[in-house]
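Hi C.,

You asked whether I'd gotten around to modeling the 555-residue construct. I have! Everything is below, sequence then structure, no commentary in between.
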Amino acid sequence: MCAGSGYGGKQPSRVLAASAMLTVALAVSACTADGGGGAAAGKQPIPHQSFASRPDLKPPVVEITPGPAWSAEYEQSEEFTFLTPNYGSKTPSDGAVILDARGELVWMSPAEDDDPEDNPFDLRVQEYQGEPVLTVYEGTSDGGMGDGEIIVLDQSYEEIARVTTGGSLGPGQADFHDTTITPEDTMLIAAYVPAPADLRDVGGPEDGHIQDAVVQEVDIATGDVLFEWSAIGHVPLTETLLDFDDEQAELEKEAEEAEESEQADSSEASDSQTGPPELGTEEHPFDYFHINSVTEDDDGSLLVSARHTNAVYKLDRATGAVEWTLGGSASDFEMGEGADFTWQHDAHRSPDGTLTLLDNHSHGGSDDESSRGLRLALDGDAMTAEVATEYLPPADRVASSMANVQQLANGNMLIGWGARPHYSEYTPGGELIYDVCHGDECREDEFEGGGGSYRAYKFAWEGRPASDPDVVVQDGGEEYDGGPVAFVSWNGATEVTRWRLMAGEDEGSATEQAVVDREGFETAIPVPDAAAELPYAVVEALDAEGTVLGTAQAR
């Protein structure tokens, strides 16, 4: 990849000393950093990878910074990283992305920028009907919540199922915050549902409205709703840690800014007399709970994380009753030193009985602190919670939204930093192995575009695309002495090790002209002079045993 000068945030004080970390500069097949990608005047979009054979794919160039626990084996890892980055410029492309250990593209499904219902979130590998699958949310994203569906893809990247809400909610209301498949081939999903509520106890109107948080367990094959839970039926409004007046002021501020922007874009002055918006109404319900993860506990119960109560709830799977509350204003656990978390995401029970989560510790306010990954040891008898392990960023990193933690099979921890465009891997003891930047924070000030990803994951994955490889033959330029070059790629293929060029008068007479090792997402094959004028040419994808996996016709 086109790596920059080193790790760095927007503030120089956050750059680690060279003795602590060393930025690795890796070469990617092609990348650009032109200024025509939709960034603000005077700014450049974040550099992106580009490919002659797939010009529609424009994933980000990433920068990998080794940590104290780095070793060369991580660069050679056969596992992949799964992201859904979002950029504030036309390039790099938003979308669902799989990257290899060096940050090179493996697979991408780009989002349609002009389609408000094409916002991918939470791309990951799961198991369905005994086979590995990809799952990814597709739908809207507005105000920290969404309405859509979860797509299930097989190893050929073909859709085999769609999952959304049902029962009392009707279809199309699945939120993007979680998409967990259970061993019973059901999916745990959440939804935001406006509901009437008396808000006087939190400073709002008597005849107010809230965003209720609803959990559904849906049978993937049938769409039947097997379980449904509503937050307002089990968690009092008074547990919220959102200040109603502060949220009202923020709503008014956003409305003023939107009106000013609209007037600036219009040649006519607005004569609107509607007055300021009111929080807690049907139009602007109060989001007292804000569910952001639903997972299974080790005894079959459910663990629900609620950002706006700063708490994790254990739910009885049969009755929906709250068995205990961890954190927040009504915690059933005594929180040990350093164990308090706020505005958190992604609560999971680990195989060793500890509970992991991403402690955002920030909400866009003046009291924000650096975010961290957190492992808590819970004593269910003494009802205490103690810090088992902290996973700290290489320098203070305030992730005010999104983010996740994923315990890997070897005990390592992967952290996606959400709104901050980074992901990091740690040893079981919390020592940093590497930190990867996929946005503008590791660039100089002339670059912008954000690049945050809702979550980041690391998995093994074997992709065998149903589509054919892509190939284009063009002048190779000075690098290839001006001769023709076949540029070939296969979006999502993970088993290709070599490419073979075959050419002849026709298919029956075609013979081998060149065999080259796969170089990355796209491989360049110089076309020999003897094959340049032959009317028939194909490129074959070969695995390690020489088996032909796929064929692309060049002419």
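If it helps when you're writing up: Confidence is low (pLDDT under 50) at residues 1-37.

Thanks,
B.
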